[in-house]
Amino acid sequence: MAANPSVLITGASTGIGATYADRFARRGHDLVLVARDRRRMEALATRLRQESGVAVDIIQADLTEAADLAVVETRLRDDTRIGILINNAGTALGGSFIEQSTDDVARLVALNTTAMLRLASAVAPRFVQAGEGAIINIGSVVGLAPEFAMTVYGATKAFALFLSQGLSVELGPKGVYVQAVLPAATRTEIWEHAGADVNTMTGVMEVDELVDAALAGFDRREPVTIPPLPDVEQWNAFQAARQAMLPNTGQEHAAARYRTAV
Ligand SMILES: NC(=O)C1=CN([C@@H]2O[C@H](COP(=O)(O)OP(=O)(O)OC[C@H]3O[C@@H](n4cnc5c(N)ncnc54)[C@H](OP(=O)(O)O)[C@@H]3O)[C@@H](O)[C@H]2O)C=CC1
Ligand SMILES: CC(=O)[C@H](N)C(=O)O
Might you give the EC number(s) for this enzyme (predicted)? Predict the structure, then answer.
């Protein structure tokens, strides 16, 4: 990768995305910020230009809208200065599955998965061609835990993890680094969108600490970074159990417990 490639960050107007913007600007990377709220991105861009001297472009886009998404895809395909994509834009929904409207869950899926997928798909061929580049996908520990009963949100985050791991397998040998970041509860505005008061919750990480930890994982080229998990061996054991099961799945016959007498 060029020493300081430009970084395109979705969901960069606030929260985790704005903090990534701050950190990559301090590292001397030019930025492309993507979100809906132009005013907030302008304020962030002005500060980062002054403090870090980097160039900051803004794309105002609603990533649930095909036409807006296409603009970002085109930028990723054509702008060879962009060497890092951070797929961070995402939101959450309050309520149980039957309380959430079909339109709302479809919009959630469009933002948290389809936008992530389309942007990765737009940039990956160029990165592979160059033999370098990085994609950071923001998942969530919720994607590991159906028990949390945030079913659709969690399903989108399971998608983010699987997509990242699959892309690591496919693109890693071609020089492209893919990182899944799995935060747990972090103090941002997402909780207001999910109808929860973050100030009443315990175990909430501050956003600066979350992003700095995620970047430590990025610098180590970890495929999966779970900033709040104290013992990485728990994650390693989880992956080892999955991999141990796989060779047993290619069988000509159904398992004995499913064989019925005819
Ligand atoms: N905070 C937490 O506890 C956790 C967060 N995460 C994940 O981290 C990521 C960032 O979340 P966080 O910073 O907390 O949330 P925030 O709500 O603080 O920020 C979300 C960002 O996404 C942007 N965004 C929302 N909708 C759209 C849209 N339709 N099109 C384009 N941009 C959009 C918002 O900007 P704008 O409104 O201007 O469009 C904003 O910049 C998400 O993927 C989230 O799921 C994962 C685990 C825990
Ligand atoms: C709203 C949430 O559940 C949060 N973003 C998370 O992923 O933990």
Answer: 1.1.1.298, 1.1.1.381
92-128 pLDDT, tens digit per residue, is 999 999 999 999 999 999 999 999 999 999 999 999 9
Tell whether 259 is covered by a domain: no
Burial tier of 253 (Cβ tally within 10 Å: 0-12, 13-18, 19+) = exposed
Task: Provide the CATH number for the domain around residue 117.
Answer: 3.40.50.720
Helix axes 15-26, 38-52, angle to 10 degrees: 20
ipTM of the complex: 0.99
> Which protein residues are within 6 Å of ligand 2, measured from CB?
92, 140, 142, 150, 184-185, 190, 194
**Cα(70) to centroid of ligand 1, in Å?**
19
Tell me, in angstroms, the distance from the centre of ligand 2 to residue 79's CA.
32
Question: 225 pLDDT exceeds 80?
Answer: yes
Residue at 1 is within a domain: no
* Residues whose CB falls within 8 Å of the CB of residue 245, separated by 6 or more in sequence, listed in order: none
pTM given for the model: 0.98
Q: What pLDDT sits at residue 2?
A: 62
How many structural domains is the chain composed of?
A: 1
Residue 153 annotated among the catalytic residues of the structure? yes
Domain that holds residue 97: 6-232
Q: Is the CB of 36 under 6 A from ligand 1?
A: yes
- 246 in a structural domain: no
The answer to whether 12 and 60 have CB atoms below 8 angstroms apart is no
Ligand 2 pocket test: which of 159, 181, 189, 190 has the largest number of ligand atoms within 8 Å of its C-beta? 190
Report yes or no on 249 lying in a domain. no
